[in-house]
């Protein structure tokens, strides 16, 4: 209940505060029924779309992080740290290089890149000595992320047009996204939700071990494939909307487990409000810190997430989920 209240407060703050001339008084007046054309334009055409994009992005990344951590049984597994988001971003970068524009990007390209990133993560967990060591898995993911980001930077050096179009997007932002872009991601988000509903109970069994899951009549291989597909759909859609945002999939499940325990079903339920609340709050802060300019959203999420990562790593024992 507290998490949903925090989300409601974050949404209200997102509509009331911004980097422009429309302050809380004007915004609140419009919400109360006053007809101010300038305030209406700012709230309905600028702040409301980025609020909704923030809600969808935060939900997708928070849930994807929880799924990935449970699947790998690693609390450090996070789409932004393990190369899933970087794979998605690199696919989008290649699409722009080949002639696409940011307005015409489809989530399919981003999701294919995320799917490739997921496959590499699962392959890393099957390697001897890597999957059993959370820190080594993160280091492997960081290497992959660095490689893909370097290749994306190389693309921007080759094509100046691509660099101009992707430079702001790659740092992470929910600003300037159209309703058409948001609607393009909804079918895949809904499909991911249906997959999660179908697989959450078997996944909870798999978290106890493959033998336990098989003893209960589940098929670990099919569970993994379903979770990988759901993560790819969620991360790909979120990356297409807001760019590669790191640490969201780490912080949100970490906080959710702190309140609800290790059960994936309770964790996912808490991720539903906590993920959007984190993104929406971070976006509001990004507008206010350097007003009238805006700080990239990815910088804010990194500032929030880096200390959480250090806390987990410096703990005496990193728990295996």
UniProtKB/TrEMBL annotation:
It is a multi-pass membrane protein. Keywords: Cell membrane, Membrane, Transmembrane, Transmembrane helix, Transport. It comes from the Bacteria. Its main location: membrane. It is found in: Cell membrane. The keyword Hydrolase does not apply. The chain crosses the membrane at residues 48-68, 80-99, 105-125, 137-158, 178-200, 295-313. One of its GO terms (biological process) is siderophore-iron import into cell. Pfam families: FecCD. The keyword Nucleotidyltransferase does not apply. GO terms for cellular component: plasma membrane. InterPro entries: ABC_BtuC-like, ABC_transptr_permease_BtuC. One of its GO terms (molecular function) is transmembrane transporter activity. Belongs to the binding-protein-dependent transport system permease family. FecCD subfamily. This is Iron ABC transporter permease. It comes from Marinobacter salinexigens. The lineage of its organism: Bacteria, Pseudomonadati, Pseudomonadota, Gammaproteobacteria, Pseudomonadales.
